Please model this.
Amino acid sequence: MAMKREEKIKAAQQLRETLKNYKSIILINLKKLPAQLQKKVRRKIDGFHRVERKPVINHALQDLGIEYEVDYPVLVIAVNEHPYRIEKILRSEQLPVSAKPGQVAEEDIIIEEMETDLPPGPALSALKQAGLDARVEKGKIKIAKTSVLAKKGEKLTPIKVQALQLLGIKPFKVRAHIAFAYDGVYYKPEHFKITEEEIAEDITKAATGAFNLALNANYPTPQTIEFLLQNAYTQAKNLATEANIYSPISMEGIIYKQFIIGNNIPKGDKDES
Model:
């Protein structure tokens, strides 16, 4: 049943007031997303989540000053966590799905040696046409040898899809994707392609680069001060030693330079007279 204009405005106002209580607003495109997967995702997320009508969410976003318009069926999520935390949950919840002709293999599709409950007949021919070593043993079809049905990047033909269906193998996985997120910063789908591990690696590289830059520029920070002081101490000691300036830190070096190196006496030699 279509909502009246007044109902849409009221619903949008209520949604806006709800969203204002959370740090992050996340929208998930429900198009082609299985209901089973949607339920699994919602059970994992602590916060507000609701399937919302497009006009309602668009009005609410506009009232919040968020410049984004929804043109797809949407699951609205509001949480007090960073959107990347929700992305991590979405990555962990994946649903196996059957292959379709024309789909491209994301990885090598390997069929392991196995026994099946398939009786001899058309199924045997289909499996053989797909390139599998299928035989009949004890009245049932057996895959006698582990084989690669399709290599990564290969388009699946109808006969290979049929073979997968006969064996009950679902080689693809579907998961929910964030279509848009906002926590004071706008996030698009491409921002979530980077993994948590890649972010950590980038942070480590940036921290190392900043440390080296500060150290080479003699810029004191809590991280560089110890190294700068050690370097200054070493330089002061070497300068005092070379200039014969007597001090507690240079005396040993001066004595060694004048009486050992200056007299060409190898270190460790003793007077045997």
